[in-house]
Design goal:
binds zinc ion; alpha/beta; globular; five-stranded mixed β-sheet; 9 helices
Length: 206
């Protein structure tokens, strides 16, 4: 008597072929134009306390992840976002900033002084240091060192600003969705910028 199991019987080579095809897609996904599984770019702070993939529920292959000091939209975030959204079918960007970020740990003046001292020790002027060794024309010049470093007073405001920078940028297509979250190192949870629930519910109502 034929059972359903017999009817649906799969030859071994079929499952092996599926695995071989999947591996081929994985290895040649760039050549085949296969985007990340979630068509997602994540921009996050480099802080070692943020488990970016775990916090967003991502697996290997789901997203491209760009991490830098502060999770700030720098020129290289724009470069990377422009390339992946225009040439790699990325349709979503998520920015992850976090509480107790190192970017809030010192004043602009202290950081600028520290970098100036480092440049001086190396026999250079901070305004003339190469920002990109391949593009010697790119230096701080007359721009503000503090604005380049991007220290932060308020992480929620900073997060909302990074989202706006990406949303408004001419090299990021308009139909790309950009969202930001603040990861709370104290609770291990994400919050939307501006929604400081823990603070609100532990303060007396005005
Ligand atoms: Zn940080």
């Amino acid at each position: 008597m034929a059972s359903d199991a017999d009817h649906e019987h799969e030859h071994v080579h079929e499952s092996v072929d599926d695995a071989v095809d999947a591996r081929d897609d994985w290895a040649r996904r760039r050549r085949k134009g296969i985007p990340t599984n979630e068509q997602l770019l994540v921009v996050a702070c480099m802080d070692e306390r943020i488990p970016v993939e775990e916090a967003l529920g991502l697996e290997l292959g789901d997203a491209q992840v760009f991490r830098n000091a502060g999770g700030k939209v720098t020129d290289d975030v724009i470069r990377s976002a422009a390339l992946t959204t225009n040439f790699f079918d990325t349709t979503e960007i998520v920015v992850v900033n976090h509480t107790d970020c190192g970017m809030m740990s010192a004043s602009d003046e202290a950081v600028v002084e520290g970098l100036e001292a480092q440049a001086e020790a190396a026999g250079a002027d901070l305004d003339e240091v190469d920002l990109d060794p391949a593009i010697p024309d790119l230096d701080i010049g007359d721009a503000s060192v503090a604005e380049w470093v991007k220290m932060t007073d308020d992480i929620d405001e900073a997060c909302a600003a990074q989202v706006a920078y990406l949303e408004d940028h001419e090299l990021v297509p308009d139909d790309v969705t950009v969202t930001g979250y603040v990861y709370e190192v104290e609770s291990g949870e994400l919050r939307r910028p501006g929604e400081r629930v823990a603070e609100e519910i532990s303060e007396r109502r005005a």
